[in-house]
Backbone:
C-alpha cells in the first residue's frame, strides 16, 4: 500500500525541475511552447497556396487496363539528367519516341517495340490542364505559405507536401512536352512556375517540409537543365531565373525545426499525462487462479503509472535539454562556410535520437517518427540534404550565368572568372569543399560544371549512374553505399554517345524482358505442377466416390435453413413431381446442351432457380478451388441462369483453365440475416470428373485494352499452331482478322485498334473468335475468346 501510494503521488520535485528548466531556456531566448509559433498565413499567400493544391495532383502515373486500376502516385518520367558516359546527358524532349517503364512487362509489350511514353504524358497532363494553368498563375504571382495549426504540434497535418511534389512533376512533364512540340514560351512558363515551388515557398519549420523542398530543388534542377538546352533564351528571362535561385536559402530555417520539435515533444509529454489510464482489472479470483499473470499485469500497470507520474516529467526535462543541444548544433552547422567544415561538427552526419531511460510508448513513437523522416530523406539527414540542395543552387546560378555569357559573346568563357563582376559578384564557390566550382569546356562547344559532392572528393566530374539512385516520393534517394561521383551540370551528349547509350538501353531492356519472361515461365511451371499434384488427389477421391455406394440421406447432409430442410427449400416441383430427391441428388451435376464454340461447359441441377437465388448463391467449385478465377468471383468465368423448366443452369467458361481432367462440384452457400452460426449453411454436391478438350487457354489479364492497343493471348497444348482471330463489334460487325502461327505454344498477337479499312476503333469493347489448328495432331477448334 505504501508503494502504491508512492506511485500514485505526483513527483513534485520533478515537476518543479521541469518548470525551472523551461524558465531558464526561455530566459536564454529558446522557444519552449507551441504558442511561440505562428504558422498562419496572410490572405494573399494563403490564396496562392490553395491554388497550388486545388487540383489534388497525384503525379503522372499510368492506367493499367490489364487489371483495370490506376497507378498515378509514382513518377513515370524518364531521368532528366541520366548519365551518358561519365559527364554527359541526353536531351529528353528531342527524342521522337520515349521508352516507357511499362515496356518491361510482357502484358504491355508489343513484339519488336515498346510503348511511347509521350502518349502517356500527353494524356496525364491533359487531365489536369485547367488546374495546372491555375497553379502556374498562382506560383508566378508571388510567394506562398500554407495556413497551418502550429498548436497541434506533432499532430499537425501537412497534406500539401504530396500535392507540391506531384505538381512539380507535372509542371516538369509539361515543360518537356512543350519543348517536344516547339512551344518555347509555355515551356519557360512551366519552368518558372516549378522553380517558384522552391524559391517562393515560405516553408514551415518542420524537418519533413524542408526535406521535401530539397527534393523539389533536385527535380527542378533536372528540368532546368533540359529547358536550357533549347538555347536562344533572352538575357531578360535568364536573369530572372538567376535571381530566383539567388534568393533562396536552404540552410537558414534548420535550427527552427529543432525548436518546433522541442515544443511538440514536450507537449506530447503533457498530453500523455492527461490521458485517462484504464484499471488493470485484476480480481481476487484472478490472483488465486494465476498469480504469475496477475503479478505481471499489476506490475505493468504500476510501471505505466510510475512513468505517467514521474517518468514523463523526467523525459520532458530531458527533451527540453536534448532539443536545446540539437538547436545549438544546427546553429553552429548552418554558420559553417562549407560542408567540409560542417560535417566535422557534432550531430551533422550521424542520426541523433532521443534516449529515455524509461521504456514507453511515448519515446518509441518519437523515435519511430524520426526514423520515418530519415527514410523519407532517402537515408540522409536534414543537413546533408540541405547541403546538396545548396550545392545544386550554386551550380544552377553559375550555369544560368554561363548561358547569359554565351548569349552575349557567342561562346562559353574559358574560365568562371570571366563571369565576374558582370554576371556574378564573385567567382562561384563549391559549397562542399570551399574551392571554386570545377568547370571545363568541351570540344563541341558545351561545358561541364560540377561540385565534388558530399564526400568532398573530386572524381573528375563523374555523374552518378542510374543504378546508384533510387526514387523516394518522386525524387532522388540513395540505395546502399554512395557511388563515387560528383554533383554535375552535364554537357550535352553527342549523337554518337546518344546512339551508343540507346543501344545499351535496348540490350539491357531485352535482358530484363528475357529474365522476366523466364521467371514467369518458371512460376507457371511450378504452379502447374502444384495444381496437378493436388488435382491427382482430387481425381482419386472423385473416382472412389463414384465407385462407392451412395450413403443414405441423413439430417447432417440435409441441414436446416431458416426452419426448413434445404431439400424442401430448394425443391423444384415442376421437375421433381412426386419424387423425393435427397439434397445430394439435387446437387449432382448433369451435363446440359453443349456450347463448344463458346468454350462454355453447362450443367443442370434439379433445384429451383428462384428458391436458390432467394436463399443464397450457387456456383461450381473447380478443382477444389485451386483456381480462384474459376469460382465465379470475377463474374465472367461462370454463369447461373434459369432453365425453361425452372431448374438451375450453371455455366463454366473452361477456356481459362488448362485442358484435360478436372474435378467439379456444385457448392451452395446460404445467406444469413442473423449472427447465429446454424443459419450460415455451406453444402457441396458430389464431385464429378470433367474432361476439357479445349485447344486454347486464355489468361484474364489480357481481357482489357486501352488506346494503345490490345493483346490477343492464348496458350496451346502443342508447340506448333496456326491461328486466325476474328474481331467483332458488340453488334457482331466484323472489324478485322489477325492471322499467324506460333512455334512456342503461345499466341501473342497485338492489335493496334485499326480496322480492315485503316480506321481507328473507338468503342469500349469488342469480341474475339479464335480459330486454331494444330498441324502435329491435326486437331482444330473454333472458340469464343475474350
Residues:
Amino acid at each position: 500500500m505504501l508503494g502504491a501510494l508512492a506511485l500514485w503521488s505526483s513527483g513534485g520535485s520533478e515537476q518543479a525541475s521541469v518548470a525551472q528548466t523551461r524558465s531558464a531556456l526561455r530566459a536564454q531566448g529558446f522557444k519552449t511552447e507551441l504558442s511561440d509559433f505562428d504558422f498562419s498565413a496572410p490572405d494573399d499567400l494563403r490564396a496562392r497556396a490553395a491554388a497550388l493544391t486545388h487540383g489534388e495532383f497525384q503525379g503522372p502515373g499510368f492506367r493499367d487496363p490489364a487489371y483495370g486500376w490506376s497507378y498515378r502516385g509514382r513518377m513515370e518520367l524518364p531521368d532528366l539528367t541520366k548519365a551518358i558516359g561519365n559527364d554527359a546527358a541526353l536531351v529528353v524532349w528531342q527524342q521522337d519516341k520515349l521508352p516507357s517503364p511499362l515496356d518491361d512487362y510482357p502484358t504491355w509489350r508489343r513484339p519488336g517495340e515498346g510503348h511511347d511514353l509521350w502518349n502517356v504524358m500527353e494524356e496525364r497532363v491533359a487531365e489536369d490542364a485547367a488546374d495546372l494553368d491555375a497553379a502556374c498563375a498562382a506560383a508566378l504571382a508571388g510567394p506562398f505559405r500554407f495556413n497551418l495549426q502550429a498548436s497541434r504540434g506533432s499532430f499537425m497535418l501537412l497534406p500539401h507536401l504530396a500535392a507540391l511534389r506531384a505538381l512539380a512533376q507535372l509542371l516538369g512533364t509539361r515543360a518537356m512536352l512543350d519543348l517536344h512540340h516547339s512551344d518555347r514560351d509555355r515551356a519557360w512558363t512551366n519552368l518558372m512556375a516549378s522553380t517558384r515551388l522552391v524559391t517562393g515557398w515560405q516553408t514551415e519549420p518542420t524537418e519533413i517540409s524542408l526535406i521535401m523542398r530539397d527534393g523539389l530543388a533536385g527535380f527542378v534542377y533536372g528540368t532546368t537543365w533540359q529547358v536550357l538546352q533549347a538555347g536562344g533564351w533572352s538575357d531578360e528571362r535568364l536573369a530572372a531565373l538567376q535571381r530566383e535561385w539567388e534568393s533562396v536559402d536552404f540552410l537558414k530555417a534548420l535550427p527552427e525545426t529543432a525548436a518546433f520539435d522541442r515544443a511538440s515533444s514536450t507537449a506530447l509529454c503533457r498530453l500523455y499525462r492527461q490521458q485517462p489510464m484504464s484499471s488493470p482489472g485484476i480480481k481476487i479470483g484472478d490472483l488465486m487462479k494465476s498469480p504469475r499473470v496477475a503479478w505481471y499485469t499489476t506490475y505493468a500497470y504500476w510501471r505505466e503509472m510510475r512513468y505517467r507520474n514521474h517518468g514523463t516529467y523526467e523525459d520532458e526535462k530531458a527533451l527540453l535539454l536534448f532539443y536545446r543541444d540539437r538547436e545549438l548544433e544546427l546553429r553552429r552547422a548552418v554558420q559553417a562556410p562549407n560542408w567540409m567544415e560542417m560535417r566535422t561538427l557534432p550531430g551533422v552526419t550521424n542520426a541523433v535520437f532521443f534516449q529515455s531511460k524509461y521504456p514507453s510508448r511515448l519515446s518509441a513513437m518519437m523515435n519511430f517518427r524520426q526514423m520515418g523522416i530519415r527514410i523519407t530523406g532517402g537515408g540522409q539527414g536534414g543537413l546533408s540534404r540541405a547541403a546538396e540542395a545548396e550545392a545544386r543552387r550554386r551550380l544552377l546560378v553559375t550555369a544560368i550565368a554561363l548561358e547569359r555569357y554565351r548569349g552575349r559573346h557567342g561562346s562559353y568563357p574559358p574560365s568562371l572568372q570571366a563571369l565576374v563582376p558582370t554576371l556574378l559578384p564573385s567567382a562561384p564557390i563549391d559549397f562542399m569543399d570551399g574551392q571554386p566550382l570545377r568547370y571545363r569546356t568541351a570540344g563541341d562547344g558545351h561545358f561541364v560544371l560540377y561540385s565534388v559532392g558530399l564526400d568532398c572528393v573530386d572524381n573528375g566530374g563523374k555523374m552518378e549512374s542510374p543504378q546508384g539512385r533510387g526514387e523516394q516520393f518522386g525524387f532522388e534517394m540513395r540505395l546502399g553505399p554512395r557511388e563515387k561521383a560528383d554533383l554535375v551540370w552535364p554537357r550535352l551528349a553527342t549523337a554518337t554517345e546518344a546512339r551508343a547509350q540507346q543501344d545499351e538501353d535496348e540490350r539491357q531492356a531485352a535482358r530484363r524482358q528475357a529474365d522476366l519472361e523466364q521467371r514467369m515461365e518458371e512460376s507457371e511451371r511450378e504452379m502447374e505442377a502444384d495444381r496437378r499434384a493436388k488435382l491427382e488427389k482430387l481425381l482419386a477421391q472423385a473416382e472412389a466416390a463414384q465407385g462407392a455406394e451412395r450413403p443414405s440421406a441423413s439430417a447432417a447432409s440435409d441441414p436446416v435453413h431458416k426452419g426448413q430442410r434445404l431439400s424442401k427449400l430448394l425443391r423444384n416441383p415442376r421437375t421433381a413431381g412426386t419424387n423425393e430427391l435427397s439434397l445430394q441428388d439435387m446437387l449432382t451435376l448433369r451435363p446440359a446442351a453443349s456450347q463448344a464454340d463458346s468454350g462454355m461447359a453447362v450443367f443442370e441441377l434439379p433445384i429451383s432457380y428462384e428458391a436458390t437465388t432467394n436463399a443464397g448463391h450457387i456456383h461450381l467449385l473447380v478443382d477444389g478451388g485451386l483456381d480462384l478465377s474459376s469460382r465465379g468471383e470475377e463474374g465472367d468465368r461462370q454463369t447461373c441462369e434459369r432453365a425453361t423448366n425452372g431448374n438451375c443452369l450453371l455455366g463454366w467458361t473452361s477456356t481459362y483453365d488448362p485442358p484435360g481432367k478436372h474435378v467439379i462440384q456444385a457448392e451452395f452457400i446460404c445467406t444469413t440475416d442473423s449472427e447465429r452460426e446454424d443459419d450460415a449453411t455451406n453444402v457441396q454436391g458430389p464431385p464429378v470428373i470433367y474432361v476439357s478438350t479445349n485447344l486454347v487457354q486464355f489468361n484474364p489479364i489480357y481481357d482489357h485494352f486501352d488506346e494503345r492497343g490490345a493483346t490477343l493471348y492464348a496458350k496451346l497444348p502443342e508447340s506448333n499452331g496456326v491461328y486466325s482471330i476474328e474481331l467483332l463489334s458488340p453488334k457482331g460487325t466484323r472489324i478485322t482478322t489477325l492471322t499467324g502461327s506460333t512455334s512456342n505454344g503461345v499466341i501473342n498477337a497485338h492489335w493496334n485498334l485499326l480496322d480492315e479499312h485503316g480506321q481507328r476503333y473507338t468503342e469500349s469493347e469488342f469480341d474475339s473468335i479464335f480459330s486454331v489448328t494444330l498441324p502435329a495432331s491435326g486437331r482444330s477448334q473454333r472458340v469464343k475468346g475474350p
